[in-house]
Amino acid sequence: MTSTPTTPTTPVAVEPPVTAARTPLLEVKGLVVHYQVRGAGAVIRRRETVHAVDGVDLSLDTHQTLGLVGESGCGKSTTGRSVLLLERPTAGLIRFEGRDLTALSRRELNGLRRRMQIVFQDPVGSLNPRHTVGQLLREPLLVHHLVPKQRQRERVEELLDLVGLPTDAVSRFPHEFSGGQCQRIGIARALAAEPSFLVLDEPVSALDVSIQAQILQLLTDLQDRLGLSYLFIAHDLAVVGQMSDLVAVMYLGKIVEIAERDSLYARPHHPYTQGLFSAVPVPDPTLSRKHGDTVVAGEVPSSLAPPPGCRFNTRCPMARERCRTEEPPLDQVAPGHRVACHFADEAVRNNPFDVAPTVEV
Ligand SMILES: Nc1ncnc2c1ncn2[C@@H]1O[C@H](COP(=O)(O)OP(=O)(O)OP(=O)(O)O)[C@@H](O)[C@H]1O
């Protein structure tokens, strides 16, 4: 049976397809941070350039956690600080809540900055030892005019309660607390400004493992309760995997792989990511490794003179001529999974570090 299309008696307006243009909470494009330093020569000390961050793109939605992982010196902290404009980028765009931070006046920036806070690695050193906890938590309230004077004590007590500290902490000094408790104070201080986004820069790496778990749980609970978004910086893949929705792997100033957590942990494509996984302790001693070592051999090259081509080529067991001359673009290998490696297909078929990821997420 054939059917003929019916002609509508009344004209029907054709709606354009609805494309939900979602504005990310944070968008970073082409972030570059270079430092000019004096060289180490004895007589003529030339100016040299530290390539700390070299063209990083990131995007983060509300209530999401983006993990940033890589070895020491890869540019993770510099990325985190520059996203908050604590470090002036050499180039790049940083858009937060839809506004380009680099184009704002100082006053506008101060207003918006309150919504973006940072928690540091060193919980004790990041707190002024001469101030009581009450003074430390009251300071952001005063600076940002958030709470009338008569409500400040109540708000400080609310903040202490939020991070699981007793209210009598108000009159005590940081040295009277353990490392984990100091980190709770650091988190409360960041929350005092009522942010929507936190940079967590290695927030647990200075703490004992049992305390780490408690602080990670606290951060997860706070995220759910307050709808926060996190840029979670760490060198530990297990910790990053536990906390993150998305994971970006950074090497010598560049993102080499970025994906949803489950995709990256199930099928790491970049040899560097695979090497990082091989550095995670393997519970099964019968598992062998082709290269004997548990970590990527060699050191991260100096960021004063990053190698041409793929920056990982000096340590990559798969490196070929093309890797030494041509920089690989960050190409999509699966939905939302991007990798900067000329031979990503081959790497994923024949993981040069041999060991499948052992991190359970
Ligand atoms: N203020 C600065 N002046 C000069 N060089 C700097 C400065 N800050 C960072 N660097 C250099 O920039 C590079 C990236 O440093 P960064 O601290 O961002 O790395 P990271 O991955 O966070 O390392 P870590 O885990 O050790 O903190 C390093 O070579 C570092 O020495």
TrEMBL record:
PROSITE patterns: ABC_TRANSPORTER_1, ABC_TRANSPORTER_2. One of its GO terms (molecular function) is ATP binding. One of its GO terms (biological process) is peptide transport. Gene3D superfamilies: P-loop containing nucleotide triphosphate hydrolases. SUPFAM superfamilies: P-loop containing nucleoside triphosphate hydrolases. The keyword Transport applies. Keywords: ATP-binding, Nucleotide-binding, Transport. It comes from the Bacteria. Residues 37-277 form the ABC transporter domain. Belongs to the ABC transporter superfamily. This is Oligopeptide transport system ATP-binding protein. It comes from Actinopolymorpha singaporensis.
